[in-house]
Design brief:
Low-confidence stretches: 1-16, 23-41
Mean pLDDT: 76
Radius of gyration: 18 Å
Largest sheet: 14 strands, parallel
Strand content: over 45%
Distance between the termini: 54 Å
Number of helices: 0
Shape: globular
Oligomer: single chain
């Protein structure tokens, strides 16, 4: 029978149960705060939910971090997710910011993960600051690095963003950099921005690439957002969006969003760089069913 482990810091060697994890934080003295010990999971065969450098899951009404200096956490490291392992909600600061009143301000986080494709391992909602966000992230900075443990391509990494994997809240004045890779719903800032989600005054610069050949309508990849169902305002992307090895297999790729749905709205935003793919690609949006205003 699987076990459940909550609020564990440090290293877990083998897991066959359910885990919620948070890191260890040095005392806050008004200056910079650094997570001094990170979660490292190896050879997981169970279910892992809500892994964060600071908090696995935040349910509080308000959490202010950083003050006058940057609060830094990470990298949160997951190594060799294997044997059918399932990971959902991993962020450099918080795995799941579940409260609509939860606020993370002036924070920086990162995530590094290796996944064993051959065993059917899966990862969902991965972000440099938060795996899933329903609150507010202001002045956040994130980075995500995912790779197959055998050096190959990722098959099952969905809702991946340099800042937030899945966003239902507000992201403002934030940024992500570097290379972001995943299989479906991959964005430089956010993997999927849901109807209630708002992104404003934020940017990404770097490279966004799906790590496998994406087939069908689920392969949305965007410089800022993989799929946008919410609002993007006054934000920009500078870099490249591409399919596997830069070839023409990208389904739904755009400089701002791979897919802007009927409820989506993009305004006063722009993309600079290249988008490479053979199907449903565009410099701004791959496929649009929503509203695009004063953007280029």
């Amino acid at each position: 029978e699987g076990s459940t482990i909550n609020a564990v810091a440090g290293q877990v060697g083998t897991n066959s149960g359910v885990i919620n994890l948070g890191g260890i934080v040095t005392p806050y003295n008004g200056g910079a705060v650094t997570v001094s010990m990170f979660n490292t999971l190896t050879r997981n065969a169970g279910y892992i939910f809500n892994v964060g450098g600071l908090l696995g899951k935040s349910q509080g009404d308000l959490l202010l971090l950083g003050g006058g200096q940057l609060f830094s956490a990470g990298p949160v490291t997951v190594s060799h997710l294997a044997q059918g392992g399932f990971l959902s909600g991993i962020g450099g600061i918080v795995g799941f910011n579940s409260s609509s009143k939860g606020l993370f301000s002036h924070v920086s986080g990162s995530v590094q993960a290796t996944i064993d494709n051959a065993t059917g391992a899966m990862a969902y909602s991965v972000g440099g600051v938060a795996g899933t966000n329903s609150g507010t992230i202001s002045d956040g900075r994130g980075m995500v690095l995912l790779a197959d443990s055998a050096g190959g391509l990722l098959d099952n990494a969905t809702y991946v963003g340099g800042l937030v994997g899945s966003n239902y809240g507000v992201i403002s004045d934030s940024q992500a950099t570097g290379s972001v890779t995943g299989s479906n719903y991959v964005g430089g800032l956010v993997g999927q921005n849901y109807t209630a989600g708002t992104i404003q005054r934020s940017f990404f610069y770097g490279d966004v690439a799906p790590s496998v050949k994406v087939v069908g309508a689920s392969g949305y990849v965007g410089g800022l957002v993989g799929q946008n169902d919410g609002t993007i305002q006054t934000s920009y992307f500078n870099g490249s969006v591409r399919g596997f090895d830069g070839l023409s297999d990208l389904m739904g790729g755009g400089g701002i969003a791979g897919f802007d749905s009927a409820s989506g709205k993009i305004s006063n935003s722009y993309a600079v760089g290249t988008v490479t793919g053979g199907n449903v690609v565009g410099g701004l949006v791959g496929s649009n069913a929503g509203a695009i205003i004063n953007s280029y």
